[in-house]
Specification:
Order of helices and strands: HH
Distance between the termini: 115 Å
Shape: elongated
Largest sheet: none
Number of helices: 2
Helix content: over 70%
């Protein structure tokens, strides 16, 4: 009856050579993937610089012009609102 109380200790036999090969292949894949991402990023960056260089008006000048338009539109809206408000107040005063 003592044989039921014994625990069997099993060990895992890992082939360390295969683990090392797997680690090396994983590292090599990471290097190749990193190189691919760097080349892709360089291509996108170069295309963006070329596109900006070929523009008639630089993006900073376009942004400044749009900002000026927005300010002028805001001022025109305020003047129209004030004029309408003054006209309405003038008609109520009569």
């Amino acid at each position: 009856m003592d044989h039921h109380h014994q625990q069997s200790h099993r060990t895992i036999d890992i082939n360390t050579r295969l683990v090392r090969i797997g680690a090396v292949l994983t590292a090599a894949g990471a290097v190749v993937a990193s190189a691919g991402m760097a080349i892709g990023a360089l291509a996108v960056f170069t295309a963006g610089r070329r596109m900006i260089r070929d523009m008639d008006v630089p993006p900073t000048q376009q942004a400044a012009a749009k900002w000026q338009q927005a300010k002028e539109a805001s001022r025109a809206g305020m003047r129209a609102w004030q004029s309408a408000s003054d006209a309405q107040n003038g008609s109520l005063a009569r």
